[in-house]
Design a protein that fits this description.
The complex is a heterotetramer, with two copies of chain A and two copies of chain B. Chain A is α/β, with parallel strands linked by helices. Chain A contains twelve helices and eight strands. Chain A has one domain: Thiamin diphosphate (ThDP)-binding fold, Pyr/PP domains (Rossmann fold, 3-Layer(aba) Sandwich), CATH 3.40.50.970. In chain A, the strands form two sheets. A six-stranded parallel beta sheet of chain A has the order 2-1-3-4-8-7, sandwiched between helices. A two-stranded antiparallel ribbon of chain A has the order 5-6. By secondary structure, chain B is an alpha/beta fold. Chain B contains twelve helices and 14 strands. The chains are: A alpha/beta, B alpha/beta. Chains in contact: A-B, A-C, A-D, B-C, B-D, C-D. Chains A and D meet through helix 5, helix 6 and helix 12 of A and helix 3, helix 4 and helix 5 of D. The complex binds thiamine diphosphate (TPP) (2 copies) and magnesium ion (2 copies). One thiamine diphosphate (TPP) sits at the interface of chains C and D.
């Protein structure tokens, strides 16, 4: 490994840990009653977020699902502001209006998460259309689960993206579940990549728990999109190590399944690789510790931040403040 | 007599209707696992996965599927996990389900119940907290039911399944853990009939779904203040039981309507408009409404609380209307 | 040809003509202002209707689109009652409530047409589910256009049909247009049959203007469905010889295109075949004349039928008449 | 001054806005060919198929696409061919488009116009004739505009495109062939302001969209009968211009609200409820509504005519309210 690639992989290792620690912290805070609503963790799926987002500029647009913390952090959004939003503070990305499922960080190109399964796939295509229409080289990336492919709008959006040759990367994190129901009960279609074929959209099904694979394949896909080749569908096979939401006891999963998953942890896998490449274990531990400290410190700052002022509850329904008075 | 939570008593109603009528089938996302809230938990073990059917995340298609099955002889009970996503089913409900009988000149019947869950609680935020019943009272051919308590839910769900029309059945998430006794001599309510939940003489508070509980709490406080409030539980939002409303208003001459949905274009508007027209001479003052200000439901608890209408809003409105006690 | 096959083909030849004449009559009546709304003709596409419906029993369920006259007649619905509905009479299939786009003849298994593109595909799947649940051997057939495959619910329904192995035949009449816009402007997907592959639904793209091909392929598909093999998607390539609706001047089509289409007229093609098989031209003319007389006589009876009573306008919104009073 | 049909003047408005702002893009089914009614005909020749974009029959996705494009800097004007199919876009409009600014804490703006076409005429039947504006006035974050004439449509469409909010713009199919002069000194209307379409003193008739024309005809007949009716054209259904309404009601003390949509849960209900509450003391009698009885639109002309509210319904209601002339 060159010094450059070494640093590159160390940074991604750090990025994986930041997400993992961030979400463990969300889980802890949720257990302590500090998180409103029902957050969904991406634990076990971090390699997809990190491997894809490593190729994005701030001006590229990112859309994600209800399970989007990792994508947003990997795109570079501020940890403190993200946590502050998830715990409903005024300093949060959305001033406490959005929460875990509605994170938006427009300045960083994060146009947002959604609580409606497949609900923003077409919006992501819209961002791609706008880039195309404005002659920009930016692309749009949208993350979604395998369950989302049951929704009609997924197929409508594929058709449009192919027809208009939109610069968009569809990233499906196929974790084999939609809530408590396994993929087999949702569809005969094992691999989401199969949906690309009718539209002649290039696609690949890859090991989403191997950061090196995700990074390489996402890089190639994005290079093609930036070169004007139109949409790409990347299916990342992965595992949801946590429950569907924080609090889900996962009684529908066997012990064997849970154990097998741990084996495939994307962080452990990258770690093994880096160790084999000759990196010092102590160095990796330092990265992990450092990421932990960074996240926990940001989390503490977020927890100390003020709560939203109830008097501001009618802000921003419309752009013009005058409209609130009329319709309130 | 036995105590039941809202969730468990719904399951009992489904269980009873499935066991007495083999045409009744359940379908929806995760229903075999019990659905997001456990209402259907265990029914797949009793009735098999051919009568309790998990579906993909395809609200439009499963609503069409249930509609087509109802036209072909089944009595499907479809679950749409959150009413927020019922918009994905709305084309079907509006353009197919509700109109089928009429457009066919009366050739068909469509016995279908669509169970869904609505309302705000605990930071579920803008896309999982809405009260969208208004969309459905504007659709000729539908029936809309919104129970206010476990026993009400039990009776109304059973009546809905037997009713033979397409019924939207709205469960409020805040009621799911509420407990209530089911009387041994319980008789099923009639779809379309409202209920006097508490008698009173100074003012009528009209409510439905969880807001009935809020109204009852308010009425209790008002009683302590010397104001006698009658609380009407609409039960059915479409059709509206104007007879029961008229009876109450002719007694109290003052009406407050309380809903959780945003006020503009809401169910309370229709009720107020009808009372304003049909009972104008009975009114000692304007018909007032309590509801959600015109904004999406925010995430942070302080904001959610600030926005949602509650007991205090009802009390304030009543005080304005009848003068402080 | 055996006597039996001969009679069989003669009957189908007659069925083609009944539809063609019926729709010419609709066009004539529309020009004369006798048809409310905007009827859509299936002229040029009749072979699909006749070839598929020849395999259906009255208890099989049929759903169709805005372009459904042919399918409904081919399934055996009464010509007079169908015409009466299209011209809005009280003796119409739907007592004048439905019209051309909402024809329903429940007693004959016609569960109906729809004016919402793709709006009843899932209903057809529901009929198939009901048959399956009730242990019946009936199947469900749904006709739709190529444009309908742009609608998400088409894909949602394919997924469900495959997953539940429903006894349903999806028949797409790919006429290369959705309203005034050609298929190329709607989709990169030339052949609708491509959509079946991800779900492992058996499919075929066939010449929909050759009745013999349609009849054979539909027969095989339906036999498989009745045998419990689950859904089938049959794509019939065809041509819309008329405008999108009666009155459409079709300025978006070239003269060459229009001329080429006439060449492929399904009636002419069957006629050529029957003549080559040795059937007498006079016999075929007699069939055509007979069908013409039958349709025109039925049309005249329909036109003489009473118009709906305005006082009945609130009938049948609900099953229980009591409800009208409450909500009216 | 020049005479324009509703269709042609809409095209002119689009043309002008496209030529003055390169962010404005058109999209929808068949828009390059002009759409089902020819509104956009020819614009593709002038602006190219990268600014006038045909779409597949995918109402959900094209609405999402337009929303995402608006968030990313375009000003899309989307056409949904019939409002009946806007239900397919409703999940997006309700859960994404309308809430985006609020849910993001004000980070984004969403300049989007969704043009659609509504109303009954000529046997278009149950799925192509509806008036569904009510669904949209119940959605915080949206603006709903419904012009009543060619000139109104021209000004309101231009104002809507420049407004910077997500606007639903509802065109009534019966108005498409109406002709009107566009004054040379025409100034654009302000979104949110109603208009006095005819002055009067005995009763206020509030209407919008095509029903304004019906109300004006009724007012003319009433004038001949000695009844002076003021006709308000709401223009914008969300937000409601209560100030203009209050001004009129304080003068006439009697209000009739006319809409084509089914009455139950309709826009008129909200207006009646607000007047009943805010202007109770101004009222000399009940606020009345004219609208469609609670049924789908039937196909046969006799039935369509029997169901749809018209001039006679307005006259009857006014006569009941002010006593026969
Ligand atoms: C339209 C819609 N229907 C149902 C739901 C409820 N729901 C939330 S997450 C989920 C499962 C999503 O599965 P998948 O897309 O695979 O994502 P994952 O949770 O596995 O990351 C469901 C059904 C929803 N949020 N939106
Ligand atoms: C949901 C919906 N969107 C738009 C329309 C308007 N419309 C009616 S027919 C049609 C084209 C349908 O094309 P296709 O499915 O190929 O059927 P064809 O007319 O060619 O038989 C369109 C867009 C509609 N009826 N429904
Ligand atoms: Mg999943
Ligand atoms: Mg076509």
């Amino acid at each position: 490994m060159t010094q450059q690639t070494l640093e590159h992989w160390q940074q991604m290792y750090r990025s994986l840990w930041r997400i993992r620690i961030f979400e463990s912290q969300v889980q802890r805070l949720a257990a302590a009653g500090e998180v409103p609503g029902f957050p969904h963790l991406s634990t076990g799926q971090e390699a997809v977020a990190v491997g894809v987002c490593a190729h994005l500029n701030p001006s590229d647009v990112l859309y994600t699902s209800h399970r989007g913390h990792g994508h947003i952090l990997a795109k570079g959004s501020d940890i403190e502001a993200t946590m502050a939003e998830i715990i409903g503070r005024d300093t949060g990305l959305c001033r406490g209006r959005g929460g875990s499922m509605h994170l938006v960080d427009a300045a960083n190109g994060v146009l947002g998460a959604t609580g409606v399964v497949a609900g923003n796939l077409a919006l992501a295509a819209g961002a791609a259309w706008a880039a195309q229409a404005q002659g920009k080289s930016d692309i749009s990336v949208v993350f979604f689960g395998d369950g989302a492919t049951g929704a009609g709008v997924f197929h409508e959006t594929l058709n449009l993206a192919a027809l208009w040759k939109l610069p968009i990367l569809f990233v499906c994190e196929n974790n084999g579940y939609a809530e408590f129901t396994s993929r087999e009960e949702h569809s005969n279609v094992n691999h989401v990549s199969a949906f690309a074929a009718p539209y002649h959209i290039p696609t690949k099904t890859i090991d989403g728990n191997d950061l090196r694979v995700v990074h390489a394949e996402a890089g190639a896909a994005i290079a093609g999109i930036r070169a004007g080749q139109g949409p790409y569908l990347l299916e990342c096979m992965t595992f949801r190590m946590a429950g569907h939401y924080v609090g889900d006891a996962q009684q529908y999963r066997s012990k064997e399944e849970m154990a097998a998953m741990l084996e495939k942890c994307p962080i452990e896998r990258l770690k093994r690789h880096l160790l084999e490449s000759g990196i010092d274990a102590a160095e990796l531990d330092a990265i992990q510790n450092d990421a932990t400290q960074e996240v926990l410190a940001a989390s503490d700052r977020a927890r100390a931040a003020p709560r939203p002022d109830p008097a501001s509850v009618m802000d921003d329904v419309y752009t013009s403040p005058a409209l609130h008075a009329i319709t309130g | 007599m036995a105590v039941h939570t809202f969730i468990n008593i719904l399951k009992r109603a489904l269980d009873e209707e499935m066991s007495h009528d083999s045409a009744v089938h359940l379908l929806g996302e995760d229903v075999a696992a019990g659905g997001a809230f456990g209402v259907t938990r265990g029914l797949v073990d009793k009735y098999g996965d051919h009568r309790v059917k998990n579906t993909p995340i395809s609200e439009a298609a499963i609503t069409g599927l249930a509609t087509g099955a109802a036209l072909a002889g089944l009595k499907p009970v479809l679950e749409i996990m959150f009413i927020d996503f019922a918009t994905l089913a709305l084309d079907c409900l509006l353009n197919q389900t509700a109109k089928y009988r009429y457009m066919s000149g009366g050739q068909v019947t469509l016995p279908l119940v669509v169970r869904t869950q609505a309302g705000a609680a605990g930071g579920a935020a803008a896309q999982h907290s809405q009260s969208l019943e208004t969309f459905f009272i504007h659709i000729p051919g539908l029936i809309v039911v919104a129970p206010s308590s476990p026993v009400e839910a039990y009776g109304l769900l059973k009546s809905a399944i037997r009713y033979g029309e397409p019924v939207l059945f709205i469960e409020h998430k805040r009621l799911y853990t509420m407990k209530e006794d089911l009387p041994d001599d319980y008789t099923l309510p009639t779809i379309g009939q409202a209920r006097v939940a508490r008698e009173g003489s100074d003012i009528t508070i009209i409510a439905y779904s969880a807001m009935v509980q809020t109204a009852l709490e308010a009425a209790q406080t008002l009683a302590d203040q010397g104001i006698s409030a009658e609380v009407l539980d609409l039960r059915t939002l479409l059709p509206l039981d104007m007879a029961t409303i008229a009876q109450s208003v002719s007694k109290t001459h003052r009406v407050l309507i309380a809903q959780e949905a945003v006020l503009n274009g809401g169910v309370a508007a229709e009720i107020a408009a009808r009372i304003g027209s049909e009972l104008f001479d009975e009114l000692d003052g304007p018909v007032e409404r309590v509801g959600c200000p015109f904004a999406p439901i925010p995430f942070a608890p302080e904001l959610e609380r600030a926005l949602l209408p509650g007991k205090d809003d009802i009390l304030r409105a009543v005080h304005r209307m009848v003068g402080h006690a």
